[in-house]
């Protein structure tokens, strides 16, 4: 955190701990937390994410964003349990699971855990090798399926993820660069429940990465700082750098890019968002909604679990 030396909180004039150029202001710890709560409350209310009767399942990775969103929702009085999926990405997964569990234990919160290797016989490095696709492809498919399933099985009414403003703006820039109209139409902070899939919600879309990290530091939340070793080469990292360079030139431009898209552009694309793809029915193996006979997750499990396990260092070496 970097309050300018001698700078004062905009609200109380006490010494500031953080400067937020996009708000053209500095804040002390107390008023910074208040600003974060206000931004999250505004997102929840403006986009009609959920209310206090909802049972929320938070996708928890052990990183700053997922722990910050879980903490914020509990603080704001919502009912939220966590779900952690052990991806089997070597030490990264072992350590991230410990952070998630410690956070839950210290606060008496319920964390459901699923191990890909233990319960489905594969891990992400092996799935990537077996399918000859980038790790994030098998990982995203696995997480989406397991979060949906856990939400429906457990009677949860919304799945929450910790995507922040930087994440969403980077995806938006990528989709805009290619004019991916169908993706753009669905890049919303709330995706309503449909076709047997639960509602998906992103309450942190009004907070930047730096702000969620600062939230954790001020609140005393220990989180895993290291990024997933499989993220290297992910093109969204390049888009984040580009947006940060623009933000440095013109504070507030990142928020304007994403939030004005949601307010002004997304409504014009609504017709694309509601067009349903092929008819959906139950997967013949697991019962999940799918347009084929067997869903993509069950096909992935079959391919990856039959492959000899691949360790992370081998995997990384193989991709250099
Ligand atoms: S965990 Fe999985 Fe991410 Fe790692 S393999 Fe890619 S998608 S980068 S959020
Ligand atoms: Zn203050
Ligand atoms: Zn299936």
Description:
This protein starts with 17 loop residues before the first strand and ends with a helix. It has a single domain, classed as HUPs (Rossmann fold, 3-Layer(aba) Sandwich), CATH 3.40.50.620. A 6-stranded mixed sheet has the order 5-4-3-6-8-7, sandwiched between helices. A two-stranded antiparallel ribbon has the order 1-2. The protein has a two-stranded antiparallel sheet with strand order 9-10. With 320 residues, it is of the alpha/beta class. The protein is 51% helix and 11% strand. A hairpin with a 4-residue loop joins β1 (18-20) and β2. Mean pLDDT is 92; it is low at 316-320. The protein contains 14 helices and 10 strands. It binds Fe4 H S5 and zinc ion (ZN) (2 copies). Residues 87, 124, 135-136, 139-140, 228, 230-231 line the site of Fe4 H S5.
Main sheet overview: 6 strands, mixed
- Radius of gyration, Cα only, in angstroms? 20 Å
**Structural class, from secondary structure content?**
alpha/beta
What overall form do the CA principal axes indicate? globular
What bound compounds does this protein have?
Answer: Fe4 H S5, zinc ion
- N-to-C series of helices and strands: EEHEHEHEHHHEHHEEHHHHEEHH
CATH architecture: 3-Layer(aba) Sandwich
Helix content: 40-55%
Number of helices: 14
Beta-strand content:
5-15%
Q: How many domains comprise the coordinates?
A: 1
How many strands? 10
């Amino acid at each position: 955190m970097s309050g300018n030396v001698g700078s004062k909180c905009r609200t109380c004039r006490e010494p500031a701990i953080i400067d937020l150029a996009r708000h053209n202001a500095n804040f002390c710890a107390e008023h910074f937390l208040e600003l974060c709560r206000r931004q999250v409350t505004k997102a929840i209310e403006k986009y009609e994410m959920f209310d206090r009767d909802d049972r929320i399942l938070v996708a928890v990775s052990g990183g700053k964003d997922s722990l910050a969103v879980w903490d914020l929702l509990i603080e704001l009085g919502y009912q939220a349990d966590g779900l952690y999926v052990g991806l089997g990405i070597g030490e990264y997964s072992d350590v991230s699971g410990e952070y998630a569990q410690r956070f839950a234990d210290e606060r008496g919160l319920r964390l459901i855990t699923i191990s890909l290797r233990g319960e489905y016989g594969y891990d992400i490095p092996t799935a990537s090798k077996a399918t000859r696709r980038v790790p994030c492809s098998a990982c995203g498919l696995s997480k989406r399926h397991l979060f949906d399933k856990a939400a429906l099985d457990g009677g949860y009414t919304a799945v929450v993820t910790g995507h922040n403003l930087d994440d969403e703006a980077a995806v938006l820039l990528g989709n805009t660069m290619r004019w991916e109209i169908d993706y753009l139409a669905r890049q919303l902070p709330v995706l309503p429940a449909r076709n047997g899939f639960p509602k998906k919600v992103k309450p942190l879309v009004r907070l930047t990465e730096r702000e969620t990290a600062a939230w954790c530091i001020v609140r005393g939340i220990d989180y895993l700082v290291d990024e997933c070793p499989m993220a290297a080469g992910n093109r969204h990292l390049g888009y984040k750098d580009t947006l940060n360079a623009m933000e440095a030139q013109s504070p507030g431009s990142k928020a304007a890019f994403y939030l004005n898209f949601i307010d002004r552009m997304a409504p014009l694309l609504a017709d694309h968002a509601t067009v349903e793809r092929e008819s959906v029915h139950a997967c013949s193996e697991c019962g999940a909604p799918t347009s084929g006979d067997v869903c993509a997750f069950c096909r992935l499990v079959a391919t990856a679990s039959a492959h000899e396990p691949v360790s992370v260092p081998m995997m990384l070496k193989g991709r250099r």
